[in-house]
Amino acid sequence: MSLKIVVCVKYVPDAAGDRRFAEDLTTDRDAADGLLSELDEYAVEQALVIAEEVDGAEVTVLTVGPDDATDALRKALSMGADKAVHVTDDDLHGTDVMGTSLVLAKAVEHIGYDLVLCGMASTDGSMGVLPAILAERLEVPQVTLLSEVSVADGTVTGRRDGDAASERLEASLPAVVSVTDQSGEARYPSFKGIMAAKKKPLETLDLEDLDIEPEQVGLAGAWTEVESATERPARTAGQVVTDEGDGAKQLAAFLAERKFI
User: Fold this and answer.
1) Which keywords, in A-to-Z order, does the entry hold (predicted)?
2) pLDDT for 177-218, tens place per residue?
3) pLDDT tens across 154-164, in order?
4) If I label 60, which of 134, 197, 214, 254 is the partner at 20 to 30 A Cα–Cα?
5) Does residue 235 sit within a domain?
6) What is the domain extent for residue 62?
């Protein structure tokens, strides 16, 4: 069987960098170096594992973001993906999850797909709702938060682990799936893979290509708005409690004073 897999990935600010808001209260993507969201690497890995088991499978990585987001796509291509699609447009600035899901849905339909794979959340927004919204826009089944996933005979099957039990889930293709960071360690790109990635096709699209009006995305089309933001206060020295038999009482008083109990 042939299988067209699309993996949605995100270019995010490095969590180890100085992440902050810009003057318009959107994420300042120039304040820190960007990279492929770590949680999305698990989705790329699972797509590659599935493709290795299915003859004729093709893996396309898709992102929506600024020009530098090609770095995330190149990382996924060097891991083994076959091709990439980058949606970029100045009018996308400030787009929230609703607008992003619209753009991804249009792009996925443009590419053509049997299976869409996503990470469990992005490491910047951390909302975790995009896979479900994307499935609704595409009007296909969703199977989310899987720690194990496989495809056979037109059906995607997986295991979702909860606090008290695990459950087996399945859906007919086409479908949208998200995987957790327990699904399997992502492979490191080899030197051969890095060199090969430079020659793999990378298509660039804008809003006009996807028949999306500017007012549907960006700050103007956002369903959410950040009204204010304050920098986290600098870390201060802690309070040392000397236990002379009343340490527990001192700790309880400290917590009560700050309304933790």
Assistant:
1) Electron transport, Transport
2) 999 999 999 999 999 999 999 999 999 999 999 999 999 999
3) 999 999 998 88
4) 214
5) no
6) 3-221
* Within a domain: 227: no
The residue written with tokens 């003859």 in the block is 55
CA–CA gap between residue 230 and residue 195 (Å, rounded):
43
Which structure tokens are listed for 242?
A: 């000397």
Kindly report, residue by residue over 45-98, the tens digit of the pLDDT: 999 999 999 988 999 999 999 999 999 999 999 999 999 999 999 999 989 999
